[in-house]
């Protein structure tokens, strides 16, 4: 008999700061889908992106974007793997190639924020509006350098494009219907994985600085972004249920098999975040920041802020 997870166990679901731990969790999950799965291609991509993020990849600086960092990538990666497991349990056939493609796309979807070694101006946030195309360029080089099947590049490109907030899947050219489904998985994981993070609300302050550097969004200050996130949430739900086919509901199957409970902990975490956001945006600006206590993020954001960012 399975025992329902404790609050501390639930918190660890979204504690994805350690790449080794995230990889170990992913391996355990994938082996429940395909016991004989060959991890070599996915693991190589995983390790390359971790090295890229840390500045250990030849020709690149460490990724310094505060929101779209390695933790974000690992959030998306593990959410995508859990989604695959939920889909498998719900009867969707997933062969080894499909699983590998999702794992690679999830890891590489934000590599476009990386700066080459001699790019010393600002951070990768300046590439926000073109980061998807830059991620695809990085992926294509990796496919060629790793001598992986060339046909994977077209599929991975379409899947990575599903993470572009400026596009919807109907605007993406998919090689086939299987790739469309896999793109929905990656796009769903990108949205659900980041919004379920326990420090999501705090990290929105980091996102503000990325948008500011990219001259994107027209936010007056940090508080303006917080206030407008409610609309983003509503738009995201429509996208998840519509263009992405409601795939996020398959996470319930994953957690039911894992813990023996009919619950979608990702959705619950997102709803808690948005409910708390609704409370804090009713407060004055200084008090609202005082309500965001996790990770020391508010304090770091204040050191980065100019007067107009706070008022």
Characterise this structure.
With 311 residues, the protein is mainly alpha-helical. The protein has a single domain, classed as Orthogonal Bundle (Catalytic domain of cyclic nucleotide phosphodiesterase 4b2b). Helices cover 62% and strands 0% of the residues. It has 15 helices and no strands. It has helices spanning 7-12, 19-33, 40-54, 70-89, 96-108, 131-146, 151-161, 177-195, 200-214, 222-241, 251-259, 265-280, 285-290, 297-304, 307-310. Helix 9 (200-214) packs across helix 10. The longest helix has 20 residues, at 70-89. The protein is globular. The protein starts with 6 loop residues before the first helix and ends with a helix.
Briefly characterize the structure.
The chain is 62% helix and 0% strand. The protein is built from 15 helices and no strands.
Topology:
Layout: H1 7-12, H2 19-33, H3 40-54, H4 70-89, H5 96-108, H6 131-146, H7 151-161, H8 177-195, H9 200-214, H10 222-241, H11 251-259, H12 265-280, H13 285-290, H14 297-304, H15 307-310
Largest sheet: none
Query: Measured on Cα atoms, how large is the radius of gyration?
Result: 19 Å
Q: Quick one: CATH class?
A: Mainly Alpha
**Overall average pLDDT:** 95
* Uncertain stretches of 5 or more adjacent residues: none
Secondary-structure-based class equals mainly alpha
Offer a few descriptive terms:
311 residues; globular; 15 helices; mainly alpha
């Amino acid at each position: 008999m399975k025992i329902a997870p404790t609050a501390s166990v639930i918190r660890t679901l979204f504690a994805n700061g350690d790449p080794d731990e995230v990889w170990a969790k992913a391996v355990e999950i994938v082996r429940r889908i395909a016991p004989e799965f060959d991890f070599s291609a996915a693991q190589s991509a995983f390790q390359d992106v971790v090295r890229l993020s840390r500045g250990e990849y030849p020709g690149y600086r460490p990724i310094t974007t505060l929101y779209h960092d390695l933790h974000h990538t690992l959030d998306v990666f593990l959410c995508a793997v859990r989604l695959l497991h939920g889909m498998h349990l719900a009867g969707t056939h997933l062969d080894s190639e499909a699983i590998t493609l999702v794992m690679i796309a999830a890891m590489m979807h934000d590599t476009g924020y990386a700066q080459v070694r001699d790019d010393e101006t600002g951070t990768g946030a300046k590439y926000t509006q073109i980061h998807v195309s830059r991620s695809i360029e990085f992926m294509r080089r990796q496919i060629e350098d790793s001598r992986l099947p060339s046909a994977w590049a077209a599929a991975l490109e379409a899947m990575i494009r599903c993470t572009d907030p400026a596009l919807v899947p109907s605007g993406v050219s998919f090689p086939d219907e299987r790739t469309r489904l896999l793109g929905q998985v990656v796009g769903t994981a990108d949205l659900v994985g980041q919004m379920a993070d326990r420090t999501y609300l705090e990290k929105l302050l980091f996102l503000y600085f990325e948008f500011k550097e990219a001259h994107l969004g027209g936010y007056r200050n940090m508080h303006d972004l917080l206030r407008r996130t409610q609309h983003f949430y509503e738009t995201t739900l429509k996208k998840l249920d519509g263009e992405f086919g409601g795939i996020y509901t398959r996470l319930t199957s994953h957690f039911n098999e894992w813990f023996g409970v009919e619950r979608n902990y990702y959705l619950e975490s997102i709803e808690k975040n948005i409910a708390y956001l609704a409370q804090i945006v009713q407060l004055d600006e200084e008090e609202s920041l005082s309500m965001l206590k996790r990770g020391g993020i508010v304090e770091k954001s204040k050191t980065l802020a100019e007067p107009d960012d706070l008022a």
